[in-house]
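Quick one, tokens below:
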């Protein structure tokens, strides 16, 4: 249940060191062209589900679709990087 989660501004993380910073929408890519403290940066383009029009059900489906696309990209990224702990359990799938 992610109902308590919220968006956070990039200022909250300035001054921290990160191995990777990955932006996932074109607006973020434009506003975060440089992220101090990041060893590597990447951009993955996804549709912005907040821009979806239509019924509430159609909008919800757009959010779910993009969520699943991001989940698949993250899993591929993590698998390609290899586990830090070979005995760590595999991440659980995201649920609606």
């Amino acid at each position: 249940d992610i109902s308590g989660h919220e968006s956070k501004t990039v200022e909250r993380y300035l001054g921290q060191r990160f191995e990777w910073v990955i932006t996932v929408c074109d607006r973020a890519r434009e506003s975060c062209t440089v992220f101090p403290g990041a060893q590597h940066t990447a951009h993955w383009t996804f549709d912005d589900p907040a821009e979806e029009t239509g019924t509430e059900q159609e909008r919800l489906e757009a959010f779910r679709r993009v969520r699943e696309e991001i989940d698949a990209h993250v899993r591929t990224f993590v698998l390609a990087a290899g586990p830090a702990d070979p005995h760590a359990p595999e991440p659980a799938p995201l649920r609606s």
